[in-house]
UniProtKB/TrEMBL annotation:
Keywords for this protein: Cell membrane, Lipoprotein, Membrane, Palmitate, Signal
InterPro entries for the chain: Bact_solute-bd_prot1 (IPR050490), SBP (IPR006059)
Domain of life, per lineage: Bacteria
Official protein name in the record: Carbohydrate ABC transporter substrate-binding protein
Signal sequence coordinates: 1-27
């Protein structure tokens, strides 16, 4: 009950802020048409004030390194719109909203949109898209569909994609060289990765090297367009054959001597980039590559390369589900038109080309922009970045407001197996029961 009251309070706060924004001075209102210039249906009414304003920007789960923040947001916005100042706000989003410090723009992704909806933050951008004459047909269709899929009724457009985030397998070449193991290749199966891992998971010179960490079960399920919650029954979808197959791979990985030590069983970006003891990590490109490029810029990077995201035999050639980073304008923003100008700039062919040359996978359906990927970034020279574009992304599953709760429980299955030594059937059954119980509690 307290959770519902808190969300109601947040919604009321946002509504009050939205009304305040509407009643305040409206610098973005278009000037009235002259008497001798009748307003044409073809003429855009998207006339925006050039008065100095500050847009508060919040990065929600999306990796936004200092370099990316400067290159993709601060510099181009300052150049194009000197009247718009971007102020990055940090902290817990719910607490910011509760205090009335609601961001104008949220950098998020299509997988983490439900929490924004729970806070009643996203504005339907349909009207702004029409008034600003943004051409959505120029985008990669899967990215727009992924965003439209976030509205249960399929009508609202609650964000605009600005980069596409494929999956890939990154690897540390130095560790492979150290043990004389051939590098990974494109089009590998997860079983191939496991075999490589067995050759690399060993202790040497006081360091325990880990060949591979599978990260999260839902990452491996991604190409199958598998929802977390059954849209018809409202029950969690955990105890199913697909997750059984995935957990068999996790168990095989944990059974390698040296992978599970004490309470340590999971390895991620820190062990891959900072500690330099994890040989392979499959992850979302925009997240892990961002960390890699930042480490390179800081002079503490690794000798890395990349291949296509591995799959199971029955998903050969399929990419992970469509995950797009997106820009969301909040309902409470007093500067919605200016925020839309920023979105127009970030998704323009010119800026998308600049971002592609740097390190971002474009959301525009433009072969020339795709071809230019990484050509302006010395840190990507010689890397197999063609792997990012080899597999077409799979459709995004229908989202549910309880996705994150179920996803958390699915990810917790790793510890139950690695540390508590529970068998796969027990873990699946118990997690299914826990997920259904959690959904029932939140539904009250």
């Amino acid at each position: 009950m307290a959770n519902h009251l808190r969300k109601l309070t947040i919604a009321l706060n946002i509504a009050a802020l939205s009304l305040a924004g509407c009643s305040a001075a409206k610098p973005a209102e278009p000037a009235p048409a002259a008497a001798d210039q009748p307003k044409s249906a073809e003429k855009s009414d998207f006339v925006v004030s050039t008065e100095p304003i500050t847009l508060k920007l919040y990065a929600n789960v999306v990796r936004l390194s200092d370099i990316e923040y400067k290159n993709f947001f601060i510099d181009p916005i300052k150049k194009k719109y000197p009247n718009i100042t971007i102020e990055k706000v940090d902290g817990d989003l719910e607490k910011l909203v509760m205090s009335g410090n609601v961001p104008d723009l949220i950098v998020s992704d299509s997988d983490w949109h439900m929490p924004l909806q729970a806070l009643d933050l996203p504005l339907d951008l349909t009207d702004l898209v029409a008034r600003s004459k943004m051409d959505l047909s120029k985008f990669v269709p899967e990215t727009i569909q992924a965003v439209r899929n976030l509205d249960a009724k399929g009508k609202e457009l609650q964000g605009i994609p600005y980069n596409l985030n494929p999956g890939a397998l990154f690897y540390n070449k130095d560790i492979f060289d150290k043990f004389g193991v051939p590098y990974p290749k494109d089009d590998m199966l997860w079983s191939d990765v496991l075999e490589l891992s067995r050759k690399l998971t060993r202790a040497q010179d006081g360091v325990q090297y880990i060949g591979w960490d599978p990260r999260f079960p839902d990452h491996l399920v991604s190409p199958y367009t598998q929802p977390f919650v059954d849209p018809k029954t409202g029950k969690a979808l955990v105890d199913i054959p697909l997750y059984h197959k995935v957990l068999e791979l996790f168990k095989a990985n944990y059974d390698q001597p040296g992978v599970v030590v004490g309470k340590t069983y999971a390895y991620g970006p820190d062990q891959f980039i900072k500690d330099k003891k994890l040989a392979m990590q499959a992850d979302w490109v925009a997240k892990l590559q961002s960390d890699l490029l930042q480490a390179d810029a800081n002079g503490v990077g690794i000798n890395w390369d990349v291949v296509t995201n591995p799959t199971f035999e029955d998903a050969k050639g399929k990419g992970r589900h469509t995950l797009t980073s997106m820009l969301v304008i909040t309902k409470a923003s007093k500067y919605k038109e200016q925020a839309m100008q920023v979105i127009q700039l970030i998704t323009s062919p010119e800026q998308q080309m600049a971002m592609s040359k740097d390190s971002q996978v474009t959301v525009l359906n433009d072969p020339e922009i795709v071809k230019a990927y990484g050509t302006g970034n010395p840190a990507l020279k010689g890397k197999n970045t063609a792997a990012y574009f080899k597999y077409k992304s799979s459709p995004t599953p229908t989202p549910n407001k309880y996705d994150k709760e179920v996803q958390t429980l699915i990810r917790n299955m790793r510890g139950e197996m690695a540390l508590n030594k529970k068998d796969i059937n027990t873990v699946l059954r118990e997690t299914q029961e826990a997920a259904d119980k959690k959904i029932a509690e939140l539904s009250k």
